[in-house]
Amino acid sequence: MESRWDVLSAVGAITCAWLLLRVAWGVARGVYVYLLPQARRGSPWLRAQGTWAVVTGATSGIGKAYAHELARRGLDVVLISRNLSKLELEAKEIERLHGRRTRVIQADFTGGLQIYGDIEAQLQGLEVGVLVNNVAMTYGSGVLRKLLDCENPAKITADMVNCNVLSVVQMTRIVLPQMVSRRRGVIINLSSVASLRSIPLLATYAASKAFVRSFSLAVATEYRPLGITVQSVSPFVVSTNMTKHPTPGLLIKLPEDFAREALDTLGLSSDVSGCLSHALQVLLMPVVLPQWLLHSRWGDQILLKVFSWLMDSRK
Description:
The chain has about 325 residues and is of the alpha/beta class. It has a single domain, classed as 3-Layer(aba) Sandwich (Rossmann fold). The protein has helices at about 1-35, 40-45, 60-70, 85-100, 115-125, 155-180, 205-225, 255-265, 275-290, 290-295, 300-310; strands at about 50-55, 75-80, 100-105, 130-135, 185-190, 230-235, 270. The chain has a 7-stranded parallel sheet with strand order 3-2-1-4-5-6-7, sandwiched between helices. Helix 3 crosses helix 8 and helix 6 runs parallel beside helix 7.
């Protein structure tokens, strides 16, 4: 009996030591990635990757914020989105505020494979140092829904896969060869906190973002020896059109603040939440909303209440 307790004590001690090491590693990593200004690569390093930055979904939200922040840090910017008038307006604003050159490419990323030939042709000859794969969509009305409850589920799911998944793969395929030939370049893929677990009422969206994160981490490993930086960014809630503009605060970031803080993590980690506030929320998520509860019979009702809270905090 005594030897059995000795074994259990040893197992308990090893488990506690392992948990303490994980906590210590998480804290050290958080300090390094988010809190040490001297560890950041800085604008000169970013400009050395190439002359141009390409941003998809660049006319609003996080994509617009990335485009402006990259221009502020000294890169010329190619903006890609489906609304030409908004593209032209945003391009003029970047030129006025930051004094950088811009180009616009009109493309609807729900269109499937056929749109990428034109995008590739228009990027020909540009030294693309940074690609931001930001464009994404969720269910048309922006609310939580069961898979078959949205209007025209066949179209909305196909559009979401084309926009959220195919765009990341094809845009990476287009810019990666020239980065490899120069042995430098940055690819930033916007995933989501939804990528960290399967989420009822957001089934297709969460799965598409899980693909983005998985793809990014694999490609980062493949091309790191060739000088390419690939980063997956998985934010929590940012105040954008997609989230219906909840009021920014301690937990919810403005897109401009988020893009600035996320760009500061480049080269420090290939898998980030983007800012310290969101990293802490991800750390606490298994405690506040464990996976078993999310997939329990009450999971969809809990998510609806969280969504309602976000809607109540709208401007």
